[in-house]
Amino acid sequence: MDAKTVERWLNLGRTPRRVTAFAVAELLGEDVFVLWPELRQSKATRSVSPELVALYERRADVPVSLFADLMAQARQRIDVLVYAGLFLHEGYPRLRELLRERAGEGCAVRIAVGDPDSLNVRQRGSEEKFGHGIESRCRLALMHYAPLGQLAGVELRTHGTTLYNSLYRADDQFLVNAHVWGANAYGAPVWHLRRNGDGGMFDMYAESFDAVWATAVPVQGG
Q: 131: how many CB neighbours lie within 10 A of its CB?
């Protein structure tokens, strides 16, 4: 190496290219990361998505009031994709009235609940160690939502897809509850997204909802 290059390493704190650094460390019989600790960092770093509002370690950490507040603020669209999602009704008993009010103000509401007779719902119950409990929870969720099915602007369907995430959309905001094998949804992470332009994470989940919705079966009278 040119002597001036080495002087820059020593006097100016410059870092050589990775290949050069490893060759020098081998020549000196020294640990390359002792000579240049910054090489421990990944060569490429990525910024956090500008759409990410908050990340919750568990759904149980998300106040139910946040779900309700986002829906109450919605003016154009509310989408819910779950297997059961009974925690919403249990934590916010006015949920049905809230959705009725939003639909009455012209907000389009789409709710997709798990088909209790589908293989994927039964499989999820087995993975979460619910057994047959998840099927009964899906039926109970349908009972909660059924009275809304007669309202203009509200659509209720059942789906039998593999549910990788439960999705809760209110206009340009999403709450995404990840599903983790062997864990109940309340113990899995939730990320809160706000749409920021086209083609981002928000649009990816919106398209996922639409894809499931296209396969879902309308509930009679819903």
A: 11
CB atoms within 10 A of CB 57: 11
Position 111: which residue type? I
- Beta carbons of 60 and 177 less than 8 angstroms apart: no
Determine the 3-state secondary structure of 53 from DSSP.
strand
Q: What are phi and psi of 77, to 5 degrees?
A: -150, 140
**Do residues 102 and 70 make contact, with C-beta atoms less than 8 angstroms apart?**
no
* Token digits of residue 11: 């006097």
The rounded distance, in Å, linking the Cα atoms of 113 and 81 is: 6
Q: What is the pLDDT of residue 216?
A: 96
CA distance 52 to 196: 9
Distance in angstroms (rounded) separating the CA atoms of residues 10 and 173? 51
How far is 175 from 75, CA to CA, in rounded Å? Answer: 17
Which amino acid, 210? Answer: D
Residue 10 pLDDT: 81
Q: How distant is the alpha carbon of residue 165 from its chain centre?
A: 6
Residue pair 113/83 in contact by the 8 Å Cβ criterion: yes
Give me the average pLDDT of each 10-residue run along the chain (222 residues).
Answer: 80 79 84 77 61 93 95 97 93 96 96 91 73 81 91 94 94 94 86 89 96 94 56
